[in-house]
Amino acid sequence: MAFDNLLVDRQGAVATVTINRPKVLNALNSPTIDELARSMLEIQNDADVRVVVLTGAGDKSFVAGADINELAVQTPTSGRMHAMTGQRVFDLIEALGKPVIAAINGYALGGGCELAMACTLRVAADTARLGQPEVSLGLIPGYAGTQRLSRLVGRGRAMDLILTGAQIPADEAERIGLVNRVVPAGELMSEVRKLAERLALAAPIAMRYIIDAINRGAEMPFAEACQYEATLFGLVTSTDDMREGTSAFIAKRKPEFKGR
Ligand code: CO8
Q: Ligand 1 within 6 A of 190 CB?
């Protein structure tokens, strides 16, 4: 996979995708959004990749938002189209079927915060800053920030953050549930790697159903979501991995999951 704006690296079952526009703090322009879609589709179809890490190049920024040079010349038609295109790519990341860990190595602002929220898990460096500053540009979030932020941290906090455009430090983001963990900046990638390797040993189909049940279930009435969970539970009992996991427990050995 060769890209102009991304670096893609594979180590064992973990693929790392690095957004690589450090001169503009990894701002997302249209070609980068297209490349993100292509890289994620390839990773989705590669059964040997079990976990994805998404990060930004350099030590200052994860993604400092959509590229403001492109935003400045949007028209009503192109603005809507670009917002919808980005939303589809972020939906793809959210529903990739394998865990995507955002390694937030600095600014995650606007589209960068929205990208991190589309990931399955978020680990932030203690130097990271997160926020939705669109209002200060006379804009609103366009990559589903109004929706994902309120679902993650609650409507009141989302309203506050998006209306003020405040940038919050990593520890506050952890306190309100916007990120899962905060680690010292120098240890970010090694900690993310440890988490990724742990997840890479888990049963892939079970992980896929867990992500699906939590994300899709959140949009359903409770009883319907529980029915959905039960259906996926039934399905997962048909996997070789379920037989492997349960028999390994009984035999007091470590399971070896094959994703079948
Ligand atoms: N777009 C384009 N260029 C950027 C961006 C960006 N989002 N962010 C930073 N840059 C550029 C700067 O212009 C600067 O370029 P140059 O060196 O040529 O002057 C370079 O990156 C370094 O940035 P700074 O000098 O500003 O670095 P600082 O350390 O002083 O400040 C900040 C860092 C605080 C992150 C600051 O750069 C900043 O505020 N950036 C903008 C953050 C922002 O407002 N992001 C939200 C954008 S809106 C958005 O994301 C909407 C998403 C939905 C879109 C849907 C339709 C397409």
A: no
Q: Which candidate in 35, 134, 174, 229 is catalytic?
A: 134
Which residue in 13, 11, 10 sits closest to 256, CA to CA? 13
How much is the pLDDT for 2? 85
With beta carbons less than 8 A apart as the criterion, state whether 16 and 43 touch: no
Angle between helix 155-164 and 145-153 (nearest 10) = 130
Q: Is the CB of 25 under 6 A from ligand 1?
A: yes
CA distance 197 to 88: 28
Q: Is 174 a catalytic residue?
A: no
Sheet containing 6-11: give its strands across.
6-11, 14-19, 51-56, 100-104, 121-125, 181-183
Please determine, for residue 53, whether its predicted confidence score (pLDDT) is greater than 90: yes
pLDDT tens-digit readout, 233-242: 999 999 999 9
Question: How far is the centre of ligand 1, averaged over its atoms, from the C-alpha of 226 (Å)?
Answer: 42
Indicate if 134 belongs to the active site: yes
Q: What is the dihedral of CA 42, 47, 52, 57, to 10 degrees?
A: -40
Q: What is the mean pLDDT of the chain?
A: 97
Whose CA is closest to atom 27 on ligand 1?
25
For 26: left if phi > 0, alpha if psi spans -120 to 50, otherwise beta; the answer is left
Residue 1 scores a pLDDT above 80? no
Q: Residue 223 class from Cβ within 10 Å (0-12 exposed, 13-18 middle, 19+ buried)?
A: exposed
With left for phi above 0 and alpha for psi between -120 and 50, is residue 95 left, alpha or beta? alpha
Q: What is the pLDDT of residues 120-133, one digit of tens each?
A: 999 999 999 999 99
